[in-house]
Amino acid sequence: MDLWQRLEVVADRWNVLRHPFYQRWSEGDLSGEELAFYAGQYAHAVDALAAASRHAADVAPAELSGELSRHAAEEEAHVDLWTRFAGATGCEGDQAPLPETADCAAAWAAPERELLPTLVALYAIESAQPAISETKRAGLVEHYGFEPGAGTEYFDIHVVRDVEHAESGRTLIEQELDGADADALVAEAERVLEANWRLLDGVQRAGH
Q1: Residue 86's CATH number
Q2: Does some domain include residue 24?
Q3: Which residues, at least 6 apart from 164, have a Cβ–Cβ distance to it below 8 Å?
Q4: pLDDT per residue as tens digits for the range 36-83
Q5: Which residues contact 50 (CB under 8 A, 6 or more apart)?
Q6: Considering only Cβ atoms within 10 Å of each terminal Cβ, which end of the chain, N or C, has fewer?
Q7: Residue 67 belongs to some domain of the structure
């Protein structure tokens, strides 16, 4: 089994579309308060993803830094899109992270990580986002009174752009794989995906 097959196995193991919280989202079973609480918690993950993208650009060699800097700028701009979504749910201001949320943000941002494991972490997160974003967007419109626009723009963009980000990330990873520790890379992917699942555990348990 090669690296990409192993990453697919890990992605399936921690596929958050099977998490009870997202299943309830799709079924229209969340209260407005739960949706707003989630928006405030996941904002920390959005910030961490932007930080990880910027870190990749900062530690990359010159020939990769331009592409990675553009990616980082995009993710930083997406923080504002998430803020608009959060506002549409009724979430106002910054929310203190639950322990599970803080753990997820730390796993995603991980400023101590070297370039290749950072690229793998980003790939693991972003390759899952198109399906997740499509499911969330559909639920918002169908069950929670959202109209396509400012409240759904974060998801509208991630349905498309994270397909492209994952493809470019895979290309960059393949360029850096010579001599890499595949077990460590798979473990890094598992770490960030499990952390996302645990974030949802915390939100579900809080039950706001």
Answers
A1: 1.20.910.10
A2: no
A3: none
A4: 999 999 999 999 999 999 999 999 999 999 999 999 999 999 999 999
A5: 72, 75, 76, 78, 79
A6: N
A7: yes
User: Residue 34 and residue 203: Cα distance in Å, rounded?
Assistant: 8
Structure tokens at 92: 């106002």
Q: Which of 15, 13, 5 is nearest to 131 (CA)?
A: 15
Domains held by the chain: number: 1
- pTM tops 0.85, yes or no: yes
Domain limits for position 171: 3-16+32-206
> Using CA atoms, how far apart are residues 16 and 93, in angstroms rounded to an integer?
26
Distance of CA 110 to the CA centre of its chain: 14
Q: At 162, which amino acid appears?
A: D
Rounded Cα distance, 4 and 149, in Å: 35
